[in-house]
Amino acid sequence: MKHLILLLLIPLLLAAGCVSADPEEPDGAGLTLLAPSDPFPIFSGQAAFAEIIQEDSPLPPLNYSMGYGVIAPGNATPPHRLLGSSELVYVIEGTARIQCDNETITAGEGEFALLPEGALQSIAAAGDAELRYLSVIQPPFTEEIEISGDDLAAVPVAADGRPIVVRGPSEGIEWDYGTGTLIYTLVNPVLMPEQDIPIDYSAAFAEILPGGHVVRNRLIGLTEVLYVIDGEIVIASPRGGTLRVPAGSAGVVPADMVKDYRNPGQENAKILSFVDPAWRVERAEIPG
């Protein structure tokens, strides 16, 4: 599905009453930089994982966890289930071969699979290159929800889960702000109700040219996490100051904070934006 929304965003926001000359910002938490933890082995060394957002992270309330996984060529995570939680697997480098119940798919760089809760899953590095991927789990990961090995037989779960696969930004909803930035909604349960998406947050991909920026905006009641894939960005807020976010790290923007972000570097910046709860037009303000 692809919709081009060019020069229509402002009229939509105006019609929804979402352009404000002087939005009120609450006092409280400011911008936060999240660097990944030191990687640690998982699944008996078949993969390594670095945590970015944990269940107990000192952040505004978020209903998901996030981490960065690395799997060497020939390795794979063993079959396991995440009881009650779905997992989004976004491939940053390499190729993933993903088992989801009775279906096996491959996903390359810039593609992702959304695995439904409780699915019997496994992720392998296909080919000769190392697999690097971002994992987002909702509700947040805890050791209690992960079932593998002999414990699988004791947990009867229907084996008919089907993944949602997005083969890159062109399959999403395209937004062109005319500021050297293209944004593509990849998955959003509000904007894409026909897909029966099993998550409450939304995910978008943005590519910002050198010197490009995203217009100043405010998300009412929505927290945004900006993960930088390549390059770097600077997030700026009248009350939260500025925050430089390098590749591999994430910046957190609390709900109701006015902010913009730009690319200060000499190469294109590629980012993933996660908005919780899911982004919607009526919750977006653009200060006049």
From TrEMBL:
Family annotation (InterPro entries): Cupin_2, PKS_Associated_Protein, RmlC-like_jellyroll, RmlC_Cupin_sf
Which Pfam family, giving just one, matches this sequence? Cupin_2
What SUPFAM superfamilies does its record include?
Answer: RmlC-like cupins
- Give the Cupin type-2 domain ranges: 70-136
Parts of the chain that traverse the membrane: none
Among PANTHER family, the record links this protein to:
16.7 KDA PROTEIN IN WHIE LOCUS
The name this protein carries in UniProt is Cupin type-2 domain-containing protein
Origin organism is hydrocarbon metagenome
* The organism's taxonomic lineage, starting at the top: unclassified sequences, metagenomes, ecological metagenomes
